[in-house]
Amino acid sequence: MNTGGFGFSFGPGDDDDDKSRRDQNPFGAFGFGGADGSGGLGDMLSQFGQMLSGMGSSMNSPEGQGPVNYALAERIARQQIGQVTPVRDQDRTAVEEAARLADLWLDDATQMPTAGGRVVAWNAEDWLTQTLPMWKRLVSPVAEHMADAQLASLPEEAREMMGPMLQMMNQMSGMNFGMQLGNALGDLAKQALTGSDFGLPVAPTDVTALLPANITAAGKELTVAGQELMVYIAARESARQRLYRHVPWLVERLVSSVEEYAAGLVIDTSHIEEATRELNLESGDPAAIQDAMQRLQGMDLSPRISSRNAQAVSRLETLLALVEGWVEYVVDRAMGERIPSTPVMTEAWRRRRATGGSAEQAFAKIVGIEFAAPKVAEAVELWRRVDVAVGQERRDGIWEHPDLMPSAEQLDNSADFIDGLLGEGDSDEFDREFAKLEEMLREQEGKDPESPEDPENPDNREK
């Protein structure tokens, strides 16, 4: 599980020694420590003053309240994005044409209808503005429960001492989270190629969005025509939007998994308390204290963060793998014979996912949940085998209800899942044939001239 507080790093220049010193600071859980490692009150107030400088409006706005200072996060993200070029008319046209062609080809590879809605071209600022509402939904529950868990992890005496300062400390914590969130969002905005690029439904549900400037930059390393790359990325985004639009439980299941994980957050500091007891700092011996401080430098005094609801993380891993695996399989089926460079682009996408453009890294950076990389390759193979076994219509019908979806174990053993589908198919076919037989027998009985129930048979009338 995550051992970094909220899943955020503390910025460049934060070496291990600084980290150890910060962990000794009782206010470290709220993101503040001495700039020179002393952790003194003067240093802490100086750091706090620097954060407050120029941020008064962010603190006092409604968006500046709560466990995350979103006004500050948005300001920092926009600063990190920097100057952006407005989307050109020819780029909008290229995006619309690519999405139209991709949707046409996808119709041959899936029963899932087109998502409809608008097709738009974004720049990095547009991505930030349009996806921020969903990021807030994902971040807020984790931040709220993290703040509660941090307070609960403090000794009773520390909580009593903090009582009068609690509101200020909460505000400081919200600002710290806001700064880290802003840096993470600004970084992802410059990487994103589409509205739901990282496998997460953060774009509005009625929008299929592509970022042409980012796509052009990403395509410089590929020996693929720009138009082919645009159609390929449009196909991936259109396929995702079909799922998010026509599988009504999917988005809410992803969000509820985050909420469930957050509700069970626990911060364990028992190993820190045990380590400090063993150092015997109460002895008063200067040599012993100096030795103890040197030993502290080599210890990992990070709070251990976990969740009582760890199964929610497994559910996220599996669901994200199934979404991305389905998208990859369907897109390859739709484009493989039409664009020869499709395998090259698929491999490039896999490398990108492994090195940064992935759901688990986006979650770790922004939401603060760390989990293993979703088994996308295994999910692609599962969907392929399902397609071969039961056909395209039944393959896509699996998305009708979450109880029909493969489990985490079945990603590694797709034969078990397919056996279940074939068994269901045999049973359904038997039921249909049996129903036909019953119907045929009823029709025959109705036509039987000897049947006593036939009112048209004169031989059966009472004499």
From TrEMBL:
Domain of life, per lineage: Bacteria
Residues covered by region (Disordered): 1-34, 438-463
Ranges annotated as biased composition (Basic and acidic residues): 438-450
Pfam families reported in the protein's UniProt record: Zincin_2 (PF10103)
Annotated InterPro entries: Zinicin_2 (IPR018766), Zinicin_2_N (IPR042271)
Biased composition regions of type Gly residues, renumbered to the chain: 1-10
SUPFAM superfamilies, per database record: Metalloproteases ('zincins'), catalytic domain (SSF55486)
Protein name: Hydrolase
